[in-house]
């Protein structure tokens, strides 16, 4: 979503909540790396100019994404690092860039992902729940089509990791999303 307005059902325009999904993806091909960095930095500047958060896509490019975003550090940059699956060190690097949340989805439920252990020391105030629909459905639906209803499974796993109630996860992650997008 690169425009700043969309038409609602009653034909009035309303402000979009974010610019995204933008970012670097070096999983399949690095041929257009320079162009990806240019596009990401241009889109981030649009977000800053429009006072909008960004949703950042990072795939096999954490170090490169952090480097590409360094020029925007301490300039009001905010948003979500979508589908976060990294380490505590990577989370710290993200949070240092600006007011970023980590999007947590089905991967946290995967037995060998290590994500649950990595999240233990990351404050809940830095997390939002998300899907990567149609991908990365949580266990026990892994390998099947993901859907929004499965965020309850992610929420339950986070409640287990943080040793709080599911309701507390709902309250905190909803508050985080509302703070960022509304």
Structure characterization notes:
The chain has 182 residues and is an alpha/beta fold. Helix content is 38%, strand content 18%. The protein is built from 6 helices and 7 strands; from the N terminus they run E-E-E-H-E-H-E-H-E-H-E-H-H. It has helices spanning 33-50, 62-69, 88-97, 115-119, 151-162, 166-181, and strands spanning 5-7, 13-15, 19-25, 54-59, 78-81, 99-104, 127-129. The strands form 2 sheets. Strands 3-4-5-6-7 form a 5-stranded parallel beta sheet, sandwiched between helices. A two-stranded antiparallel ribbon has the order 1-2. Helix 2 links the parallel strand 4 (54-59) and strand 5. Helix 5 packs across helix 6 (166-181). It is globular and about 40 Å long. Mean pLDDT is 92; it is low at 1-8.
Features:
single chain, 182 residues, alpha/beta, TIM Barrel, five-stranded parallel β-sheet, two-stranded antiparallel sheet, 6 helices, disordered N terminus
Low-confidence stretches: 1-8
Shape: globular
Amount of beta strand? 15-25%
- Helix share bin: 25-40%
Instruction: State the CATH architecture.
Output: Alpha-Beta Barrel
The radius of gyration is 16 Å
- Which class of secondary structure composition applies to the elements? alpha/beta
CATH class: Alpha Beta
CATH topology: TIM Barrel
Largest sheet: 5 strands, parallel
Number of domains: 1
Number of strands: 7
Number of helices: 6
Give me the CATH superfamily.
Metal-dependent hydrolases
Tell me the series of helices and strands, N- to C-terminal: EEEHEHEHEHEHH
Give the end-to-end Cα distance, rounded to a whole number of Å. Answer: 16 Å
Overall pLDDT confidence: 92
As laid out across the biggest beta sheet, the strand order is: 3-4-5-6-7
